[in-house]
């Protein structure tokens, strides 16, 4: 019985290991459209300097994280930030250093074992500053800078609010290679970290929009 149990556990571990070997390669282009930057005035941005970890002005360390979900999962935005439901898996903080140029990073990102190796996933990239260990903690603190793919900066959207990201199966025979990060308007097009939206500001914005709609209806 013990031998059978050990065999089952070993097989399960092997399967889990194989499932965990899907990956994509993060390598933003050397252009403003693919850089990790920050802004304090919501109008101009500065690429995060080279560093390990990179330091974002007086706001502290740079943190870049990934959220993945089954392909086709919808990502919503509320109160100025993405809402990650239980369908989304926090891949973990993978990037804190800019080592190939200001605002640029090169690294292979491995997805956790609940994703099938080589299958496409729905992907979203987020970033924040400081010593917070998670996106949710940084947003809740409201004292640093945050950014996410698909956000609007200076009147235009930065890439897509989540997208279809191919992955490579590193456990295949022969082993596959990490798929390149999808870039451009339909993928990643840079991050601009900005001050966390204040609840009061969001509420006032909502009241203003409601008042405008009310007066339009009266006309």
At a glance:
It contains three helices and 16 strands. The chain has 219 residues and is of the alpha+beta class.
Could you explain how this protein is built, in words?
- Strands 2, 3, 4, 7, 9, 10, 13 and 16 form an eight-stranded mixed beta sheet that branches. Strands 1, 8, 14 and 15 form a four-stranded mixed beta sheet that branches. The protein has a two-stranded antiparallel sheet with strand order 5-6.
- The protein is 21% helix and 30% strand.
- The chain has 219 residues and is α+β, with helices and mostly antiparallel strands.
- A hairpin with a 7-residue loop joins strand 2 (36-38) and strand 3 (46-47).
- It has one domain.
- The chain starts with a helix and ends with a helix.
């Amino acid at each position: 019985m013990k031998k059978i149990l050990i065999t089952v556990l070993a097989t399960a571990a092997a399967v889990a290991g194989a499932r965990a070997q899907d990956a994509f390669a993060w390598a933003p282009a050397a252009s403003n459209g693919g850089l990790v930057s920050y802004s304090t005035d919501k109008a101009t941005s500065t690429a995060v300097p080279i560093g390990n970890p990179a330091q974002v002005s007086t706001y502290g360390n740079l943190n870049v994280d990934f959220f993945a979900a089954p392909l086709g999962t919808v990502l919503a935005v509320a109160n100025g930030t993405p809402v990650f439901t239980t369908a989304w898996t926090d891949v973990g903080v993978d990037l804190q250093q800019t080592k190939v140029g200001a605002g640029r990073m090169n690294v292979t990102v491995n997805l956790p074992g609940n994703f099938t190796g080589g299958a496409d996933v729905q992907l979203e990239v987020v970033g924040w500053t400081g010593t917070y260990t998670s996106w949710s903690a940084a947003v809740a603190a409201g004292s640093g800078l945050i950014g996410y793919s698909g956000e609007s900066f200076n009147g235009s959207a930065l890439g897509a609010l989540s997208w279809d990201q191919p992955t490579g199966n590193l456990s295949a025979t022969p082993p596959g290679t990490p798929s390149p990060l999808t870039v451009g308007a339909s993928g990643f097009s840079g991050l601009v970290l900005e001050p966390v939206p204040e609840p009061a500001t969001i509420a006032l914005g909502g009241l203003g929009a409601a008042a405008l709609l009310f007066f339009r209806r009266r006309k």
